[in-house]
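<goal> How does this chain fold?
<body> The protein record starts here
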Amino acid sequence: MHKIGDLWSFNTRDLMRASTCQHCTTLSVLHVLQDPVVEEKLKEHIEAQEKARAEGKDKSLPQRYGDEFEEQLTKELAAKLDPSQFVRPEKDGDFGQTLDLMRSRVPVIYQGGLEHRGEGTVFRGKPDFLVLAGWELLFDDQGLSVRQTSDAAGPGYTVWDAKYSSHPKPEYALQVAIYIEALSQVGHLADNATHGLILGNRTLLPLRENDIVPAAKLARAELERAIEEVESTSRSGLLENFTWHCAGNKQCEICEYPKLCKKDREATSDLLLVAGLGKRMRDKLLKAGIKDLKMLSKSELTSVKDVSQQTFEKLKLQAKLQLKSIRSEGPESEPLANPMLQYLPKSDAGDVFFDMEGFPYFKEGGLEYLFGNWTREEEFKEFWAVDRRTEKIAFINFMTWLYNRMMENPNAHIYHYASYERTALNRLANHYAVAERELAQLEAEHRFVDLYPVVTKSVRVGEPKYSIKNLERHYEFKERAGVEAGDESIEEFVRWRDLEEKLTSGVELEDRAQTTQEAKKVYNRIRDYNIEDVQSTMELYDWLLKFEGAATKPWESLFYVSEEEAAGQLTAKQIKLMDLERDTAYLLDPVRDYEKGLDPEMDNQVAAWEALAHSILFYMREDVMFWTNLNIRMTLDDEDLTQDREAMVVTEAREIDLDGLELAAGHTGQFQIEVDPEELFRPKAGTPIAIRYESEPGVVRFDFGKVDALENGVLTFSRNPKDPESLKHSPSAIFDVTKYNTTGKEHFLLETAKEITSVWGSPFSEPPRGYPILDLLLRKEPQFVDSKPLMQPDKEDYLPALIDAADRMQRSAIAVQGPPGTGKTYLASRLIKHLVESDKRVAVGTNSHAAVENLLDECIAAEMEPLQVVKVLDSGTPEDYKWTALKGASQLSTALRKSMGGLVMGATSFGLCNKQIREHHFDYLIIDEAAQYSLVDLIAASGIADNIILFGDPQQLAQVVQAVHPGGVENSALGHFIGDHAILPDGLGYFVEVTRRMHPNLTEAVSWLSYEGRLRSIEKTKLNIVPGIEPGLHKIVLDHSGNSTHSPEEVEEVVRLVGNHIADVGPDEIIIVAPYNNQVNAIRKALDQAGFDGVRVGTVDKFQGQEGMIVIVSLACSSADDAPRGLDFLLDRNRLNVAISRGKSVCYLIHSRHLLSASYRSLEDVKSVSRLAGLKS
């Protein structure tokens, strides 16, 4: 930041600092104003920066790689375009010359200059590429390219910035946002266009204007406010209590003077020096009058507001031990009660101590360049990589060696520190589709031991961090390598690789011997650094073994272990998966080494081929990973579990006898719990469950049982433990462990994939037509018998166009995207009626019996004959339904065989893959709520019909994904078809852009939020009026802090609003939505006490499909730091869309003002805050 006359000039880093750290911004402003006190404080830091600049060392490694990346992209575009189509200003970054080039409609302007003026501030920057409307960037086999898509586009430009990182950072988005504002200010912004980032993995990341510009405006306003405050405040008063370090460690990542922060924190004994204490906790302690580490260690308080007693006591003990260590100038530690090290595996001669070195700046998401291992034989086993090809080889060789060693040593384990290694191994196995079986077996046998949680749950150490480097002095480990830190090893790797490239380039080198010697020295330094890491890991393990009670309990007892695993055998499922992987390897072999990002069309074909191949393995992989996933779910906190549709938090369980009487003593294993009316998990009697409990503090166990009944809000379940002693411990959660029979799905997945790939021949050949599921995978426009395009719809009535499309379909797929209130179910049922009356056989699928029965009910409402509407009975009796309910697949199959004309059959994904049902063929497969229907299930079901029609909306509640699979087959069918678009692309079907629910004022907010401004209301919705309040969105901003999942301030406001309107609209026309169950329960209680018990309250999951004249949304959480699941959950676009669109007339959106001053820690944070800020009252 600097000042030109009266104007303050800033860049995007200044914006980031303004939005996240007051200290950073104030310091920058005072430095520009050359305050003498500040200049003296910064003197040594500024001199160091100037020295680095003079020596050419001022740019970091990612900056240097970024410059090279931008230069390479520029060369690639220059090779594709005529010089008149690819121009830069004569003077680098000149704003006036850039304007002249835009007026001349140059297709691509590079390294131009833009500025955006505010009141007293100006932003100046150089966007990498300005692209004229009607032209678009893309990658092909020659690199970055551009093509003209329209001759009739307007005069505006889109902005694209190149960033070497493969992971977009928040400042990247803010930079694009302010360039968008600059283009708008000078009248050269393309209308309704996509801007974005060109990432180092050679992909284009599109950014929507409304996703990023509101957040940038907030950040700029905060910067301007900070400047004004500094300029208008006396310097002495400002500096009297000024903190010379950032308020949080994360802020130092963007601070101009991080070394000053570190030095001042240590000098002032700041609370952030306490291990495990972050900015949010620091703020709470400061409010309680605890100002530094010493005060915390000596505090006589027993509790602090919004901090549990247990957490506060733990922090006090940590501070006390750190203070003791500072005073003794030596390592201090103390064991914890019930330490996890009791479960450490015993030492074995075959043990491996493992550490990986990664290079994060390699293209396409980083490179794992060294897999280092130390053994008890004092052998260093190393596997090196320098590029993608050698990374795959190194990974295979490493996994082969590791797997063989573990099989030869059944009691051996693999020790590492922190989760990076296991995460990276799983990512590599998934990426290369190799060693998956071996890795899965090692995981299933619990061979990996992460020592980080063992340390943190066993020992308290007097260190500011629990990193392995901080722990080393406790076990007297002495480092010897010349590399001091991980970042330095990255620099050394780059240097070594550059030297090796120089030696192998074939160019004559005068100093070859010297270069060879230098390369060897650098290589040895990297190698020695990794050796020290793995040796240190071994010595840490040995140190832990010296504590009393270490390794006295079985490691495996921390996990659920099947009988086969306990016997050290592969399970039958693992063997079956191995066989299936071997039998299908031929499908994946052709694409294993395919490099994506060079040819978008070929990428699409390869992705479709991979989806088919991986779909075959999907359910077997799910089966093999079932217990691993369950172990993971057991560790989730209660708030996360409240969003799990197959789990329930148990707060108070009553043990009962067989007659239902509560027991005072003794154990029968039968329990009852009260079930919240809003509970998402509502199991039927007979549902098998896992029951979680703690056998001792911090040690999670589970045993099994079943649901006996769920009646009148009371759930009764039986518990059948292996060890009766576990009945002494109260249940804390239950989990559905139903194992569905997926044999039918597996059969048809294999059949479908093999048939299509056999006809296709190769993923690099022209894909065959005539397979609707392949068209859907490839996102191809549908084929019609007359080869004519889709009929243009009447925007007031889409049914005629939809019927026309369905009648003309020729073994293809189309979709109908229906936003809230657009009548998807009406359209689907009336289309079905037309098709059945045309003697067509229609299969309807959804992901639940309730959803499919709802659509069949609507078919009856459309006056279809009950005998033409059939489904297998799920519950109750046939007489309970207006359509024909049949008992079992056999009876349904008979009915289908006897039917001579058109009919519609409803089924879940299991019914569509029932072998008896698949003996019959249908003309159409219609999937309702297709945004919640998995792609893999659609692949399995697709062979039942000639054509596929999807109904749904990916912008509303999406399918819950439990695990990520290769090929992306776990994603939703409609989500895949639409791809990265918010709106269904033209040609793939119909986007229904007219809602029949919301008043136009409210529709405007929803349309801006989720539908690119295209959603509108029918005329009669203007009659949706609530007396005394203007229709539309109304924000109510409150000032509260420290609230996480419950805000009493917002509860009070909700009750006030209900009281204002209930007499006018009645309780049935008011819906209240909150993101967290704690807030839902508090609101429910407050409303009941106020006499408003008829008003509906719940999380958004409860209300999709429901509506009311008024919806009140309470976000509850005070700030980004308070959000337990992050802003991307709290301000999720889909959840906000569903919440707001429940209203027919009015939506009150209640939130804390601090949610609009978020620290942008990720791109998702930028988007989340933009959603909230951009919604206009």
